[in-house]
Amino acid sequence: MTEIYYTLESEVRSYSRSWPAEFVKASGATQTAADGTEYLDFFAGAGALNYGHNNPVFMEPLIAYLQSGQVLHSMDMKTPAKRKFLETFKSRILDPRGLNYKVMFPGPTGTNTVEAALKLARKYTGRQHILSFTNAFHGMTLGSLSVTGNSMKREGAGIPLTNSSKIPYDDYFDGETADFLWLERVLEDSGSGVDKPAAIIVETVQGEGGVRAARAEWLRGLAELCRRHDILLIVDDVQAGCGRTGTFFSFEEAGIVPDIVCLSKSISGSGLPLALTLFRPELDIWSPGEHNGTFRGNNPAFVTATAAIEEFWADDSFQQELAGKIELLQSRLERIAFSASGAGVRGRGMFGGIIFEDAELAGKIAAEAYRNGLLVETSGPKDEVVKLLPPLTVTREELDRGLDILAAAVAAVAPAPTAAEAAAASA
């Protein structure tokens, strides 16, 4: 019955190899397979479903809109759905945070917003070079790949990826070097051979790179360096944004204001394709139609995005509720990591990970979790991290149950800690 997937679909498919079930229903934090097996989904569409599957908050207005005869596809033309989204985004998200950004709809996906950000930075500054970070991931189109660190994904480009350089992410050298000291020096040295970049692009939490979370002070140092040297700071908030770290934007904790922000994945709330590129008004030097995209006017996504903001971000009650789940997730992950040899915790907020010194363990643990009804993926350059992205709307009971499955999978696959590791953990 499922043979068509193997005979017709491209070999490029990936998630269906790790999770071979055919999923037929989904609600909240649960997906149901054709054979009736239920799976807790701590993958959440790679972060595109922060509010869970088929949330009634979105489905009811979406169904009403689809049945109303209103415009579905509109390019960048004016529609009531677009107007209401812009008004709501400004009043509920931007204004309360003191953020003065223009909003651009670059196309439907995360790589679209990154491409727009890179193009705008080069156009505005007149410089070509972009700096990005070790282990970064920013998308699969050529511009986004040029600022991505993963060698396997970069090799898929088939051509040289130029006009960008990689610099060390926070704690890349385990704290053995002063942050940005070398970069500051080469930018100030006319003999360094390093051209001033148009921008530096950063994820505050690197998802595909191994759930690495940058410290707030490191992000502040990066923002200050960019300010001093007239370099634009781009924050790629495609996966870490929309509440994933506990605040709507992942950079809020650091108290910085990026020049350009990339949003996608959960900005529509429902999983419908939508992306935004936000930037300071003075950067808005586009000519009409200079950057466009056929599907940048996705009105059903505007409807669900508006519903998400009104339901979850009209005040701070959802954020406060989220704080308790974050505490539960992080404390449970610490306990699970302490139960295994060579394991440690990564991430921030509801963006969690467990890293294993033996890289092969992560994949085996994810497979064991799947066999017992939990969807989690792996990430990192060697797939050495078990990565968790539970829906932000997950109940505490579901969160505990999913973490119980993960703990059992770790216990079944990973070796117990040595006496020295156990002593260090209890110290």
TrEMBL record:
Per the entry, which co-factors are needed?
pyridoxal 5'-phosphate
The species this protein was found in: Brevibacterium salitolerans
The superkingdom of the source organism is Bacteria
Enzyme type, top EC level: transferase
Keywords, alphabetical: Aminotransferase, Pyridoxal phosphate, Transferase
Q: One Pfam match, by short name?
A: Aminotran_3
Which protein, by its recorded name, is this?
Diaminobutyrate--2-oxoglutarate transaminase
| Family membership | Belongs to the class-III pyridoxal-phosphate-dependent aminotransferase family.
